[in-house]
Amino acid sequence: MSKTILITGATSGIGKASAMIFAKNGFDLVITGRREHKLNQVAEKIKKKYAVNVLPLCFDVRKLKEVKKAIAQLKGRWKKIDILLNNAGLAKGFDEIHTGNINDWEIMIDTNLKGLLYMTRMVTPRMVERGSGHVINVASIAGKEVYPKGNVYCATKHGVDALTRAMRIDLHKYGVRVSQVAPGHVEQTEFSLVRFDGDKEKSKIYEDFIPVNSKDIAKVIYFIASQPVHVNIQDILVMGTQQASSNLITRSGREN
Ligand code: NDP
Ligand code: 8X3
Q1: What are the C-alpha distances in Å from 194 to residues 25, 72, 85, 92, 184?
Q2: 127-167 pLDDT, tens per residue?
Q3: Which CATH class is domain 4-238?
Q4: Per-domain residue ranges for the chain?
Q5: N or C terminus of the chain with fewer C-beta within 10 Å?
Protein backbone atom coordinates (compact mmCIF):
# COMPACT_ATOMS: atom_id res chain seq x y z
CA MET A 1 0.00 0.00 0.00
CA SER A 2 1.31 3.46 -0.82
CA LYS A 3 2.23 5.87 1.95
CA THR A 4 0.43 9.10 2.74
CA ILE A 5 1.87 12.49 3.61
CA LEU A 6 -0.14 15.40 4.99
CA ILE A 7 1.41 18.73 4.05
CA THR A 8 0.24 21.99 5.64
CA GLY A 9 0.67 25.08 3.50
CA ALA A 10 0.86 23.31 0.15
CA THR A 11 -0.60 26.19 -1.89
CA SER A 12 2.84 27.72 -2.55
CA GLY A 13 6.56 27.67 -1.88
CA ILE A 14 8.17 24.84 0.07
CA GLY A 15 4.88 23.05 0.75
CA LYS A 16 3.91 22.99 -2.92
CA ALA A 17 7.39 21.86 -4.03
CA SER A 18 7.26 19.12 -1.38
CA ALA A 19 3.86 17.97 -2.62
CA MET A 20 5.33 17.59 -6.11
CA ILE A 21 8.39 15.57 -5.03
CA PHE A 22 6.40 13.24 -2.76
CA ALA A 23 3.81 12.70 -5.52
CA LYS A 24 6.61 11.94 -7.97
CA ASN A 25 7.80 9.27 -5.54
CA GLY A 26 4.39 7.60 -5.30
CA PHE A 27 3.03 9.08 -2.08
CA ASP A 28 -0.67 9.81 -1.69
CA LEU A 29 -1.18 13.32 -0.41
CA VAL A 30 -3.43 15.32 1.87
CA ILE A 31 -2.64 18.92 0.96
CA THR A 32 -3.86 21.88 2.97
CA GLY A 33 -3.96 25.67 2.93
CA ARG A 34 -6.46 28.52 3.16
CA ARG A 35 -6.63 29.53 -0.51
CA GLU A 36 -9.00 26.99 -1.99
CA HIS A 37 -8.42 27.84 -5.68
CA LYS A 38 -4.64 27.49 -5.28
CA LEU A 39 -5.06 24.26 -3.35
CA ASN A 40 -7.27 22.83 -6.11
CA GLN A 41 -4.77 23.97 -8.76
CA VAL A 42 -1.98 22.09 -6.97
CA ALA A 43 -4.19 19.00 -6.63
CA GLU A 44 -5.08 19.09 -10.36
CA LYS A 45 -1.43 19.56 -11.37
CA ILE A 46 -0.40 16.54 -9.30
CA LYS A 47 -3.22 14.33 -10.59
CA LYS A 48 -2.39 15.20 -14.20
CA LYS A 49 1.27 14.28 -13.74
CA TYR A 50 1.28 11.40 -11.27
CA ALA A 51 -0.90 8.35 -10.56
CA VAL A 52 -1.44 9.13 -6.89
CA ASN A 53 -4.44 10.08 -4.76
CA VAL A 54 -4.72 13.69 -3.61
CA LEU A 55 -7.11 15.05 -1.01
CA PRO A 56 -7.20 18.86 -0.74
CA LEU A 57 -8.44 20.18 2.64
CA CYS A 58 -9.00 23.90 2.93
CA PHE A 59 -8.65 25.25 6.48
CA ASP A 60 -6.77 27.66 8.69
CA VAL A 61 -4.21 26.00 11.01
CA ARG A 62 -4.78 28.80 13.55
CA LYS A 63 -8.35 27.67 14.16
CA LEU A 64 -8.50 24.65 16.42
CA LYS A 65 -12.11 23.86 15.45
CA GLU A 66 -11.16 23.77 11.75
CA VAL A 67 -8.11 21.62 12.43
CA LYS A 68 -10.15 19.15 14.48
CA LYS A 69 -12.87 18.99 11.79
CA ALA A 70 -10.32 18.48 8.99
CA ILE A 71 -8.59 15.59 10.75
CA ALA A 72 -11.87 14.04 11.94
CA GLN A 73 -13.15 13.92 8.36
CA LEU A 74 -10.28 11.68 7.27
CA LYS A 75 -11.92 8.32 6.67
CA GLY A 76 -10.81 4.87 5.51
CA ARG A 77 -7.34 4.83 3.99
CA TRP A 78 -6.87 8.56 4.65
CA LYS A 79 -6.88 7.92 8.39
CA LYS A 80 -3.36 6.54 8.13
CA ILE A 81 -1.06 9.55 7.84
CA ASP A 82 2.51 8.28 7.59
CA ILE A 83 4.17 11.69 7.48
CA LEU A 84 2.99 15.04 8.84
CA LEU A 85 4.88 17.91 7.23
CA ASN A 86 4.28 20.94 9.47
CA ASN A 87 5.18 23.55 6.88
CA ALA A 88 2.48 26.26 7.06
CA GLY A 89 4.07 29.36 8.47
CA LEU A 90 4.93 32.95 7.81
CA ALA A 91 6.70 36.12 8.83
CA LYS A 92 4.67 39.31 9.10
CA GLY A 93 6.37 42.69 9.35
CA PHE A 94 9.96 43.77 9.83
CA ASP A 95 10.09 46.25 12.72
CA GLU A 96 12.11 46.91 15.82
CA ILE A 97 10.44 45.56 18.94
CA HIS A 98 9.18 48.93 20.22
CA THR A 99 7.35 49.69 16.97
CA GLY A 100 6.16 46.17 16.13
CA ASN A 101 2.61 45.60 14.93
CA ILE A 102 0.89 43.55 17.61
CA ASN A 103 -1.55 42.03 15.14
CA ASP A 104 1.44 40.75 13.11
CA TRP A 105 2.83 39.19 16.30
CA GLU A 106 -0.47 37.41 16.99
CA ILE A 107 -0.60 36.05 13.42
CA MET A 108 2.96 34.67 13.60
CA ILE A 109 2.52 33.12 17.04
CA ASP A 110 -0.87 31.64 16.14
CA THR A 111 0.34 30.19 12.82
CA ASN A 112 3.92 29.14 13.44
CA LEU A 113 3.47 27.81 16.96
CA LYS A 114 -0.17 27.17 17.78
CA GLY A 115 -1.03 25.92 14.28
CA LEU A 116 1.90 23.51 14.31
CA LEU A 117 0.89 22.32 17.77
CA TYR A 118 -2.78 21.84 16.83
CA MET A 119 -1.83 19.77 13.78
CA THR A 120 0.65 17.70 15.75
CA ARG A 121 -1.82 17.08 18.56
CA MET A 122 -4.53 15.91 16.16
CA VAL A 123 -2.36 13.72 13.91
CA THR A 124 0.17 12.06 16.23
CA PRO A 125 -2.18 9.97 18.44
CA ARG A 126 -2.82 7.55 15.56
CA MET A 127 0.91 7.38 14.82
CA VAL A 128 1.57 6.47 18.46
CA GLU A 129 -1.22 3.86 18.34
CA ARG A 130 0.35 2.27 15.23
CA GLY A 131 3.90 2.57 16.52
CA SER A 132 5.05 4.32 13.35
CA GLY A 133 4.97 7.70 11.69
CA HIS A 134 7.10 10.76 11.05
CA VAL A 135 6.63 14.42 11.93
CA ILE A 136 8.77 16.84 9.94
CA ASN A 137 8.75 20.48 11.00
CA VAL A 138 9.82 23.34 8.75
CA ALA A 139 11.86 25.50 11.13
CA SER A 140 14.34 28.17 9.99
CA ILE A 141 17.77 29.64 10.46
CA ALA A 142 15.66 32.21 12.37
CA GLY A 143 15.19 29.47 14.97
CA LYS A 144 18.97 29.21 15.44
CA GLU A 145 19.96 32.87 15.43
CA VAL A 146 18.24 36.21 15.85
CA TYR A 147 18.68 39.16 13.49
CA PRO A 148 17.70 42.84 13.61
CA LYS A 149 13.91 43.32 13.25
CA GLY A 150 13.39 39.55 13.23
CA ASN A 151 12.31 39.50 16.91
CA VAL A 152 8.91 37.75 17.01
CA TYR A 153 9.39 35.65 13.87
CA CYS A 154 12.72 34.46 15.33
CA ALA A 155 11.01 33.71 18.64
CA THR A 156 8.39 31.54 16.92
CA LYS A 157 11.04 29.61 14.99
CA HIS A 158 13.17 29.18 18.13
CA GLY A 159 9.95 27.73 19.56
CA VAL A 160 9.64 25.33 16.63
CA ASP A 161 13.27 24.29 17.15
CA ALA A 162 12.53 23.56 20.83
CA LEU A 163 9.34 21.71 19.94
CA THR A 164 11.15 19.48 17.45
CA ARG A 165 13.57 18.42 20.18
CA ALA A 166 10.78 18.03 22.72
CA MET A 167 8.60 15.99 20.34
CA ARG A 168 11.54 13.75 19.57
CA ILE A 169 12.00 13.03 23.27
CA ASP A 170 8.31 12.32 23.76
CA LEU A 171 7.69 10.28 20.61
CA HIS A 172 10.85 8.25 20.01
CA LYS A 173 9.74 5.50 22.39
CA TYR A 174 6.62 4.93 20.27
CA GLY A 175 8.55 4.45 17.04
CA VAL A 176 7.49 7.87 15.72
CA ARG A 177 10.25 9.82 14.06
CA VAL A 178 10.64 13.60 14.45
CA SER A 179 12.78 15.80 12.23
CA GLN A 180 13.17 19.35 11.08
CA VAL A 181 14.69 21.29 8.25
CA ALA A 182 15.98 24.77 9.07
CA PRO A 183 16.48 26.78 5.87
CA GLY A 184 18.11 30.15 5.34
CA HIS A 185 16.57 32.40 2.66
CA VAL A 186 14.44 30.38 0.22
CA GLU A 187 13.26 31.77 -3.12
CA GLN A 188 10.39 30.52 -5.31
CA THR A 189 8.17 31.13 -2.30
CA GLU A 190 5.72 33.86 -1.28
CA PHE A 191 7.49 34.29 2.05
CA SER A 192 8.95 37.74 1.43
CA LEU A 193 5.82 39.06 -0.31
CA VAL A 194 3.73 37.94 2.68
CA ARG A 195 6.19 39.44 5.18
CA PHE A 196 6.01 42.81 3.43
CA ASP A 197 2.22 42.73 2.93
CA GLY A 198 2.40 42.30 -0.84
CA ASP A 199 4.91 45.14 -1.40
CA LYS A 200 6.83 43.84 -4.44
CA GLU A 201 9.69 46.34 -4.13
CA LYS A 202 10.41 45.58 -0.46
CA SER A 203 10.11 41.87 -1.09
CA LYS A 204 12.98 41.87 -3.62
CA ILE A 205 15.58 40.43 -1.26
CA TYR A 206 17.02 37.69 -3.46
CA GLU A 207 18.17 39.69 -6.47
CA ASP A 208 21.87 40.01 -5.71
CA PHE A 209 22.71 36.49 -4.55
CA ILE A 210 21.50 32.94 -5.13
CA PRO A 211 19.60 31.55 -2.18
CA VAL A 212 18.32 27.99 -2.03
CA ASN A 213 14.93 27.56 -3.67
CA SER A 214 11.75 25.73 -2.71
CA LYS A 215 12.72 22.63 -4.74
CA ASP A 216 16.09 22.42 -2.97
CA ILE A 217 14.30 22.35 0.39
CA ALA A 218 11.71 19.85 -0.85
CA LYS A 219 14.58 17.55 -1.84
CA VAL A 220 16.06 17.83 1.66
CA ILE A 221 12.66 17.04 3.18
CA TYR A 222 12.29 14.02 0.90
CA PHE A 223 15.80 12.90 1.88
CA ILE A 224 14.83 13.09 5.57
CA ALA A 225 11.63 11.12 4.89
CA SER A 226 13.24 8.45 2.76
CA GLN A 227 15.78 7.16 5.27
CA PRO A 228 15.36 3.59 6.53
CA VAL A 229 12.98 3.41 9.53
CA HIS A 230 15.83 2.92 12.00
CA VAL A 231 17.31 6.29 11.00
CA ASN A 232 16.01 9.57 12.44
CA ILE A 233 17.56 12.71 10.99
CA GLN A 234 16.76 15.28 13.64
CA ASP A 235 17.84 18.54 12.09
CA ILE A 236 19.23 19.91 8.84
CA LEU A 237 20.35 23.55 8.58
CA VAL A 238 20.62 24.51 4.93
CA MET A 239 21.23 27.72 3.01
CA GLY A 240 22.65 29.04 -0.24
CA THR A 241 26.41 28.94 -0.70
CA GLN A 242 26.58 32.75 -0.56
CA GLN A 243 24.75 32.83 2.80
CA ALA A 244 26.78 31.90 5.90
CA SER A 245 24.35 33.10 8.59
CA SER A 246 21.16 35.16 8.89
CA ASN A 247 23.18 38.35 8.52
CA LEU A 248 26.17 37.28 6.50
CA ILE A 249 25.25 37.13 2.85
CA THR A 250 27.73 37.80 0.09
CA ARG A 251 25.56 39.78 -2.27
CA SER A 252 27.97 39.52 -5.18
CA GLY A 253 25.45 38.65 -7.86
CA ARG A 254 23.64 35.64 -9.22
CA GLU A 255 26.29 34.30 -11.58
CA ASN A 256 27.43 30.80 -10.66
P1 NDP B 1 4.97 30.63 1.28
O2 NDP B 1 4.34 31.92 1.69
O3 NDP B 1 5.22 30.41 -0.16
O4 NDP B 1 4.13 29.42 1.84
C5 NDP B 1 3.50 29.45 3.09
C6 NDP B 1 2.38 28.42 3.11
O7 NDP B 1 1.79 28.43 4.41
C8 NDP B 1 1.28 28.73 2.10
O9 NDP B 1 0.88 27.55 1.47
C10 NDP B 1 0.15 29.28 2.97
O11 NDP B 1 -1.09 28.92 2.41
C12 NDP B 1 0.38 28.51 4.27
N13 NDP B 1 -0.22 29.18 5.42
C14 NDP B 1 0.12 30.37 5.95
N15 NDP B 1 -0.71 30.67 6.97
C16 NDP B 1 -1.58 29.64 7.08
C17 NDP B 1 -2.67 29.36 7.93
N18 NDP B 1 -3.05 30.20 8.90
N19 NDP B 1 -3.36 28.21 7.76
C20 NDP B 1 -3.01 27.34 6.77
N21 NDP B 1 -1.98 27.53 5.94
C22 NDP B 1 -1.28 28.68 6.09
O23 NDP B 1 6.34 30.57 2.09
P24 NDP B 1 7.39 29.37 2.32
O25 NDP B 1 7.15 28.25 1.41
O26 NDP B 1 8.71 30.01 2.34
O27 NDP B 1 7.03 28.98 3.83
C28 NDP B 1 6.90 27.65 4.26
C29 NDP B 1 7.59 27.50 5.60
O30 NDP B 1 8.98 27.70 5.42
C31 NDP B 1 7.16 28.50 6.67
O32 NDP B 1 7.01 27.81 7.90
C33 NDP B 1 8.32 29.46 6.75
O34 NDP B 1 8.42 30.07 8.00
C35 NDP B 1 9.46 28.54 6.46
N36 NDP B 1 10.72 29.13 6.01
C37 NDP B 1 10.75 29.92 4.89
C38 NDP B 1 11.94 30.46 4.46
C39 NDP B 1 12.03 31.37 3.28
O40 NDP B 1 13.01 32.13 3.18
N41 NDP B 1 11.10 31.34 2.33
C42 NDP B 1 13.18 30.18 5.19
C43 NDP B 1 13.03 29.34 6.34
C44 NDP B 1 11.84 28.82 6.72
P45 NDP B 1 -2.40 29.84 2.35
O46 NDP B 1 -1.95 31.26 2.25
O47 NDP B 1 -3.12 29.34 1.15
O48 NDP B 1 -3.11 29.51 3.62
C1 8X3 C 1 13.01 32.62 6.81
C2 8X3 C 1 14.45 32.96 6.75
O3 8X3 C 1 16.19 34.70 7.49
O4 8X3 C 1 14.12 35.53 6.49
O5 8X3 C 1 12.73 31.83 7.90
O6 8X3 C 1 14.12 34.64 8.71
S7 8X3 C 1 14.72 34.53 7.40
Answers
A1: 30, 30, 21, 7, 17
A2: 999 999 999 999 999 999 999 999 999 999 999 999 999 99
A3: alpha beta
A4: 4-238
A5: C
